[in-house]
Amino acid sequence: MSIISSKGTDLLQFNLGNFALEALNLKQNAYRCRLPKSAIGLKRYQSQTISAIDMLAGIVNSCLLGNNFSQACASVAASILPARKSAMYNFMNDPKADWNKLTMLTAWEAYRELEMLTSTKEHCLIIDDSVLEHSGAKIMELVTRTFNHNSGTVVKGYTCLQMAWTDGRNCFPLLSKLVASDESKSKRKACPNPKGKDFDRRRHGAFIRQDACKSKPVLVQGMIKAALRQGFDCSYVLMDSWFNYEPLLKWITSLDLDVIGMLKLDHRSYHRLDRKERSVTYKPLKQLWLSFKHKRSKGNNSIAGWEIVKACTADEAFEGGIKLKIVYLHSYSDPDKILVLASTDLSLSPERIVQLYARRWMVETSFFNQKEFLGLGSETRSVDFDNQNAFMCLAAIRATIFEFHRRIHKDIRTMGEIARYCEETMRIIPIAEAVKELLMRLEEFPEKLYKTGVIVNGKLKSAKRMLHMLLNSWFRDMIDYVKDIFDCSPKNRKLRSRTSKTHT
User: Fold this and answer.
1) CB-based contacts of 320, cutoff 8 Å, min separation 6
2) pLDDT tens, 233-277?
3) Helix (H, G, I), strand (E, B), or coil: what is residue 11?
C-alpha cells in the first residue's frame, strides 16, 4: 500500500526537457553539436559543476515558468532550474556550440519517428521570415533598422529567416537564421562587436555572423541544401511573394523540387503562352488579369481561373524563362482584389495548388506560437550575437518538441493550450515534489524505528497501519478545511465571523 495516490503524480509526468532527452535523443545530439560538456553554476558562497544535459533540460523548461528567461529565473518555481541566470546565460554564449545543427537534428529525430505514420507523400518545405523587434537596443551586436512588411514600418531589430517541414498535419522548424538589414548603410552602422571579442573563423560563432550579412536568397539556398543533405523528403517548396522571383525558382527546380508561391502585382511582366507555347502577350499581372477570360472553377468559387505563363528576367531571352501555372483567386476581404498563385508543377490542378499553398499558413502559426509562448525574440536582451542566435534556435527546438508531443499522443489541443497547462504544471511541481518527498520519508520511518530496536518484533505492521490511519485522517481534515474556506453561504460566513471574534 502506497501513501502517494497515482492521480497525484499526473502533474509530474510532463517535463519538456526530459521528454526531449528520452524521445528525441537530445543528449547525444547535444554532444554532436559541440555544446559544453559541463557548466559552472554559481551559488552564493560556492560553485558546483553542472552537466550540460541538466543545463539544457532546464533551459528548455524555462519557457514554461515565465514570459522570458529573466522572469523564469525569478519565479517561485525557479528551484527546478539547474543553476542561476548568469550561469545559464554563459552556457548559451559559447561560440563553439552549433545550435542551428541541434535544431535540425531535433527535427530529424521527430521526422524519423513520424515517417511511418505519415500517409501522404506530398511533403513540403516552407520558407518565411519574421521581424524580431529590439526597439531599445543601442549596442546590441548586428542590430539594424529593419523593414517590417506586416506593419509597413521600420523598426530596430533582426529578421528571423526560418525554414520548416510539414506533412500537412505537423510543422517542424528545421533551421533559423538571424539576418541583418539588406541595406548596406544599416550594416555599416550596426555594432559589429560590442564586447571586443576575437573570433576564431573556424568556430560556429563566426559562421552565424557571416550569414547575418548575406542576402536572404543566398541563405534560402543554403538552408534547402542542408535539409536535403540531412535526408528530409519533400516535393514542394512553399514561399510567399517576398521570395518568389525567377532566379531562385530556377535554382530550386534544378534540385527536382517544385515551387508554389504567391506573386506580387508589381511591374514585373510575364509572357502569356498559346497552345504551341509561343508568346502571345508580354504584360504585368494586372494587365494579364484584365485581359483574361473569366472562367470560374467548378470546385472552388474563389478560383477565378488559371493559365500558363513564362517568367523571364529583364536581361533574359524568352527561351531561357521558366514556365508557371498561375491561378487567379478572389480575395475574401476585398472582392475586387485579385490574388495570384504560381506553381512550377504544371500538372497540378488549380484546386490542388490552392490546397498545398494553404499549408504555408502553418509556419505563420508556428511563428506566432514561438513568439507568444516559447520566447522567440523576447527571452533574452543580451548584446552578444551568440546568445541571440542560441535563444532563437531554442524556441524552434521547443516548437518541435511540442509538435512531436501532440502527434504521438494524438492531442487535439493547440500549442497555446498545452503551453498554459505545462506552465501551471511546472509551477506546482516544487510543492508536489516536497509533499511527495515528505510522504516517502514518513513511509520509511517505522522501518528505521524497527532497525534501531524501538519497535519490537511483530509490531512493525501495526505501526505502519497506525501511520496510514493518521495520514488519511490528516488528508480528510485538510479537505474539510479547504471546503470550509471556499463555502460562501451566509450561514457559514456568520459562523466564521463569530468564531473569529471569540478567538480574538
Assistant:
1) 312
2) 899 999 988 888 888 999 999 999 999 999 988 888 888 888 777
3) helix
